[in-house]
Amino acid sequence: MSSEYLTPxxxxxxxxxxxxxxxxxxxxxxxxxxxxxxxxxxxVLGPITSVYRWQGKTETEAEWRIEIKTAADRVEALVxxxxxHHSYDVPxxxxxxxxxxxAEYLSWVVEETR
Length: 114
Known about the structure:
alpha+beta; 3 helices
């Protein structure tokens, strides 16, 4: 996984998203990432409705979404942390580079993940 997400402001950041089956599990994953300094902050949103294929069937379930802001060079470690602490067999873990934003905020994200 590439960690080369350099923004026009010079900060290097990404948003990593995952989902889980309960608010408690989502809060635990969010807090664990921030406490490990793999994310500067995380938001828990939900419940949301997810429709997906799993083991040959279409499923519809309530889930909670976690959005974690991190420095680009911490993405790989954050992904591994989420996979290690997630209850799903195959958790959704998606990293999106931040291509622009408040320079002050993005600098804070990088500082808080050191």
